[in-house]
Amino acid sequence: MKKIVAPDYGLGETVKSHAAAIKVAIKEAILPQTVTSHYPGERRRMPDCFRGYLRFDPEMCISCFQCSFICPANAIGMREAPDNRYYPTIDYGKCIFCYFCLDSCPGGALKPTKVHDVAYNDVDEMLTPTCDMIDMPEIIREDERYVEYKIDEHDLSLERVKGLDDLAVELPELEKISMVSVCVAPENCLSCRVCEEVCESGAITSALDGDEIRMTIDTTTCNGCGLCVKECSMQVLRLVRREI
Amino acid sequence: MMGTIEALINLMMADQVAIPLLDPILNILYGIPLLGYLLAFILWKPIFAGLVCPGFATLGVILMLFPWIERKLVARMQWRVGPREILPQFGGIIQLLADSLRFLFQEVIVHRDAKQPYFVQFPVLSFIPALLPLLFIPAGVIVAVKSAYGVQIILALVCLFPFFILGLGWASNSRFAYIGTVREAFMYFAYEIPFIIAVLAMIVLYGTSDPVAIAGMSVPGIILNPLAALTFFIAAAMATSRLPFEIAEADQELAAGPHVEYSGILFGLIYVMCYEKMYILSGLMTILFLGGGSGPEIAILGDLSGVVYFMIKTVIVMTLLAALRGVYPRYRLDQGLKIGWSSMLIMGTLALVISLAEVLIL
Which residue segment(s) compose the domain that B16 sits in? Predict the structure, then answer.
């Protein structure tokens, strides 16, 4: 029968191990190396690319519906505003914070924030109307400092910095590519006037020329939203770069 | 009749605790008829030692605060938070008050199989070895009973503790309590002999066993005989069931060992028992190895300066004992017995040899 014997480390090694254990205990008792952030009193500083609550700037919106089309969770709905334009509303009950909407927005109307702690009273309230998305949500800030995690070679450490972290993210101004809608095959146009109905900026007009209706696109008023391109049943419209 | 009272008051006034800081207030209070007598009684040194420090009141404060200190400290070491919900502004400092209220109002269940008279008696009786040694522990110059054999008396009373634990474990008549009790008995013999030898080494070294005289020595014992101090410290950890030797209680295996069947205020009494023992052993360690209440004199505190130093040293020793909980896991029973019967016995004997050598050579 094989007998299992506990390893014998010798006196020196034993004393050394005890000393090491006690040293760690004393170190932690005096200055604990915890990496817990005490949330209401301090916030973790999120990176600028953090995907949080969305803000919306109606001035920049061209009502192109791109955000609503691309939303994989179908959280964005377009609602008609009093100025007869369509603006996005976000249902945060569905939103998965993928930020596809923000990435696809041609006008840069959707803006990121680092707010991740919004509370709602009920599910209906989570459908945020456009007017509530313009300003930052109201936050009661209890934090006096923010916390940054630093990952060095071996370990994770935590650094506390006094002061409030700005939760709004200001993105650098994007280089805007101005697009315009053109008709590439006017001979195929059915003159169904869907594009005219769908156009928000009134750039597409129809006029009776003899016994046929002729559509014209005013390139100066066209904002390049691409709705007509999407809706055209004969697919004769294209979005192209505006020539300056 | 009046003459007797007069003589008593004179007796008390001759041996008062001198506190220069409070003298103006005390002089006014002594003048008030009944209150003055009461104050003279309380500030009479033997009564002060028994009632206030290191006696009853200090013990109460220690019992109310120390488990909290222990839990907070160990929590800090282990990256936890510790008690927090009750009075969170002060880190849950009155947690033990809440606990004791809970113990007080909880029903005491005496189960059918228990040996009922003993089951109820032993937790209460265990206060005898807890309170009596305090009479012999001097805080500075304040001591209740001056005795040339003080250290031995403290030792003898402290050694009574396990009997009460064995008694209540037996009276519980439950399998967990039974196993815990047997383990306690095993551990008792394992630590008791090195413990007594370590104390003996110090008595041999000092040539006296009067706690007041030992505390008044110029060189603290930990410098004269560090090996005895180490043996005493480990034995104290074993005696108070601190974590590396929490073999008898062993929460994970035995629920709570000998006191698994207890509830309510009886459990409360048992719960504080180990802290009482810790306080007494820390006090004894302070006297034997750390020079008792000696330290730079604080003039305005008078006699209380010794009390302050004694308490500071005692609490430090208690904290060290408690901090073991954050460092070590529990030993198995056989490992504990091996440590007690081999390493510590050898260490204790060596300490005795060192003491004898120092006495003979110096």
Answer: 2-42
